[in-house]
């Protein structure tokens, strides 16, 4: 049976493609424009070399991304599409030479060779539902904004430490990324202006954001702002104040957009048919559940076993054996977004699931550190989730931990 193998090196406005047959013979190379015109030319190119009667499943494509309308068009056409990690492609190209030379046509050739020779070692792009893709878009955007807020706050904090460390102490009780703390900083960005803040001014900001114990908080903030501290020349202080105001306004905008996206994340997640199963798991709420669903996807054929899901999650360990050496290490090459969500789930599950707590304590009793024990708990929870999704049943505490409870009782 004729099978065509296509390497697709994509750029912002074009795609360099190479078409090979099963023997590795190059049938065609072409540079195609992005968009409808380009995908039409690709279909025509495939039809020309497939003899006109080539079925969609006989076309295998390697490309270094798993997102975007171009990839979705390839999947919609029925082609088998493999998303190749750029690091994998770089290592594969080293068999051609170690000079480090690079070209778009060379990359397309390497991708075509990869899907022809090593596709059994690659992961095909999952056929996730439209709803799962929608969850992925908003969940990733929401998490990206949170990460951006953290980076912006770290810059703000670093600036305050250089000229106004008293502000960090004064607003610590409000959470320094909160909008009311930022509004107070904008009102008084320098120590001289902060000393002049009155209790009614502080109370008004706290009331606008519905803070409890406003009077006591206002008194504590005012007292902290009036504590004596080392100063800088006035022009330098004013310049620092301008920088802080800019960062504070950016944090306020980020807070608003994070809140707006959070509503979208919840709405899209709750509309997904798997949401009930995810929410039945210990330690998972709407946001964490949306992130886990977004990264795992909902293609029922994607993970052939619980181990495959654990490997993708990065919770299962990596064994390194060579000669007399045999070590088991954490898996650091992984999906960072998924790893972050599973870490949060495992931590929260300690307080909501007796079975999870017992499993965690068992790992700690074996001298496992905090993070390794939490990672092993996350690995166990991924296996339980896989079973629930496969059988379409909700999480049950007794069933999930019955084996471990039996072993503990016997011990």
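^ structure tokens above, recovered residues below v
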């Amino acid at each position: 049976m004729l099978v065509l193998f296509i390497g697709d090196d994509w750029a912002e406005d074009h795609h360099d493609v190479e078409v090979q047959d099963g023997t590795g013979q190059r049938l065609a190379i072409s540079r195609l424009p992005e968009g409808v015109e380009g995908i039409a030319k690709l279909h025509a190119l495939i039809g020309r070399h497939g003899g006109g009667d080539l079925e969609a499943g006989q076309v295998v494509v390697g490309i270094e991304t798993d997102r975007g309308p171009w990839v979705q068009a390839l999947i919609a056409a029925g082609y088998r599409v493999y998303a190749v990690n750029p690091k994998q492609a770089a290592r594969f190209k080293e068999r051609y030479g170690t000079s480090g030379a690079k070209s778009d046509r060379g990359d397309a050739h390497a991708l075509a060779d990869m899907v022809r020779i090593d596709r059994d070692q690659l992961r095909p792009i999952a056929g996730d539902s439209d709803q799962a893709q929608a969850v992925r878009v908003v969940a990733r955007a929401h998490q990206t904004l949170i990460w951006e807020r953290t980076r912006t706050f770290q810059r703000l904090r670093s600036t305050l430490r250089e000229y106004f460390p008293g502000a960090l102490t004064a607003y610590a009780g409000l959470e320094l990324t909160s909008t009311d703390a930022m509004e107070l900083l904008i009102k008084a960005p320098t120590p001289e202006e902060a000393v002049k803040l009155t209790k009614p001014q502080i109370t008004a900001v706290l009331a606008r954001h519905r803070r409890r114990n406003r009077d006591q908080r206002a008194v504590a903030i005012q007292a902290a702002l009036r504590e004596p501290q080392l100063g800088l020349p006035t022009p330098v202080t004013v310049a620092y104040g301008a920088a802080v105001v800019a960062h504070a306004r950016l944090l306020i905008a980020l807070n608003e957009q994070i809140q707006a996206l959070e509503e979208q994340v919840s709405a899209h997640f709750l509309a997904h048919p798997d949401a009930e199963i995810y929410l039945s798991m210990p330690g998972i709420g709407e946001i964490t559940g949306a992130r886990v669903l977004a990264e795992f996807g909902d293609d029922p054929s994607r993970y052939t076993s619980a181990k495959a899901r654990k490997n993708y999650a990065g919770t299962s360990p990596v064994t390194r054996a060579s000669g007399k050496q045999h070590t088991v290490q954490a898996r650091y090459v992984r999906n960072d977004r998924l790893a972050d969500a599973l870490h949060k789930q495992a931590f929260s599950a300690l307080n909501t699931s007796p079975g999870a707590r017992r499993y965690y304590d068992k790992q700690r009793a074996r001298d496992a550190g905090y993070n390794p024990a939490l990672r092993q708990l996350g690995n166990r929870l991924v296996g339980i989730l896989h079973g629930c999704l496969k059988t379409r049943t909700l999480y049950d505490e007794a069933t999930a931990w019955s084996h471990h409870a039996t072993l503990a009782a016997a011990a």
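Residues 234-270 form the longest helix (37 residues).
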